[in-house]
């Protein structure tokens, strides 16, 4: 309860405005690629409509995941205790460094082997129902992530359309999938404030594709540092620029800080696909995106180096800071 009180005082009086100007991009329109580029540059966050993924695919997985989240806490904790690694069911502990939130979640590697393993871990009876719902959903959002990245490459006038998407097309990609459940927090009824569900952070990967039920709670930080609330939309997907894409575009695209606040009365479920390269792959600014004389802002790194460093920092830390080149200093030398 101490944590709750601390967090309440932290969040009191912070009421970010609803951001109705979230770039909303209709993927069936011919101008979508230039709008995607603009949104990634200015906000690092956008919504896509006409994405071709049936609502049924989203609802099916959400309801299968809710079957697990609705089990008695003891059963879920047994599943957590039996986990051989960080994948599977988790509760309240978000990051390896003590970051906590009012959240429970399922974390998977976005490949068939992990989907099948976790399905068996969670559902002793009939694991195939969750397994097939998760496989269908993950393959659909992976394709959507690739489509969006290919449109972005087009919009940036890069000949090789797969320049970004190729990173997670290979067998060994380190892409993840996470289903977050933010249970309502009735204690908040008494005090007019919110509680942190998932603390502020950027996503380390190339791109994230997020879908939530129709409960709000997600907030993003704009360029000027103000926090705005994202209106929920369960039929659309939100695209989040990750650190790796910011690096590849040498800072042109913005890896956006975001966080989730829990609600007093409504349960929020979000499902996020995180598109990442293989651990041995190298991420660095792409020379073909740099203007003549433009300096590289980042030191290159392998994906495993980056994730290793990510696990050593807390959520709110500026994870990319350790890989920034001090361009100004170099000029002065
Ligand atoms: C934050 C964003 C995603 O939820 C996540 C998280 C990941 C994890 O849960 O394993 C991390 C966290 C997230 C950032 C720093 C590292 C990695 C926990 C952690 C301490 C799945 C992701 O990719 O990065």
From TrEMBL:
InterPro entries: DIOX_N (IPR026992), IPNS-like_FE2OG_OXY (IPR044861), IPNS-like_sf (IPR027443), Iron_ascorbate_oxido_reductase (IPR050231), Oxoglu/Fe-dep_dioxygenase_dom (IPR005123). Keywords: Dioxygenase, Iron, Metal-binding, Oxidoreductase. Gene3D superfamilies: B-lactam Antibiotic, Isopenicillin N Synthase, Chain. Its EC number is 1.14.11.13. Residues 172-277 form the Fe2OG dioxygenase domain. The keyword Metal-binding applies. Pfam families: 2OG-FeII_Oxy (PF03171), DIOX_N (PF14226). Belongs to the iron/ascorbate-dependent oxidoreductase family. GA2OX subfamily. This is gibberellin 2beta-dioxygenase. It comes from Cinnamomum micranthum f. kanehirae.
């Amino acid at each position: 309860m101490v944590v709750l009180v601390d967090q309440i005082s932290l969040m009191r009086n912070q009421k970010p405005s609803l951001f109705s100007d979230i770039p909303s991009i209709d993927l069936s329109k011919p101008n979508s690629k230039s709008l995607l580029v603009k949104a990634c540059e200015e906000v690092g966050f956008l919504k896509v409509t006409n994405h071709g993924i049936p609502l049924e695919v989203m609802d099916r997985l959400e309801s299968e995941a809710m079957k697990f989240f609705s089990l008695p806490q003891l059963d879920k904790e047994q599943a957590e205790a039996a986990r051989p690694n960080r994948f599977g069911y988790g509760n309240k502990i978000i990051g390896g460094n003590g970051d906590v939130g009012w959240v429970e979640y399922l974390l998977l590697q976005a490949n068939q082997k992990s989907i099948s393993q976790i399905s068996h871990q969670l559902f002793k009876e009939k694991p195939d129902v969750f397994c097939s719902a998760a496989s269908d959903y993950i393959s659909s959002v992976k394709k959507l992530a690739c489509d969006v990245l290919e449109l972005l490459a087009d919009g940036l006038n890069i000949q090789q359309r797969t320049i970004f998407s190729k990173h997670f097309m290979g067998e060994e990609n380190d892409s993840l999938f996470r289903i977050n459940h933010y249970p309502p927090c009735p204690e908040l009824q008494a005090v007019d404030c919110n509680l942190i569900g998932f603390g502020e952070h950027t996503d380390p990967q190339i791109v994230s594709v997020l879908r939530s039920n129709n409960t709000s709670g997600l907030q993003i930080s704009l360029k000027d540092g103000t926090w705005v609330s994202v209106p929920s939309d369960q039929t659309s997907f939100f695209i989040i620029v990750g650190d790796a894409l910011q690096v590849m575009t040498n800072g042109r695209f913005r890896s956006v800080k975001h966080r989730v606040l829990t609600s007093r009365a409504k349960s929020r479920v979000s499902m996020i696909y995180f598109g990442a390269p293989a651990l041995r792959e190298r991420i660095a600014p792409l020379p073909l995106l740099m203007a003549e004389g433009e300096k590289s802002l980042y030191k290159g790194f392998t994906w495993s180096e980056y994730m290793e460093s990510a696990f050593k920092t807390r959520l709110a830390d500026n994870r990319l800071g350790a890989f920034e080149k001090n361009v100004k200093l170099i000029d002065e030398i």
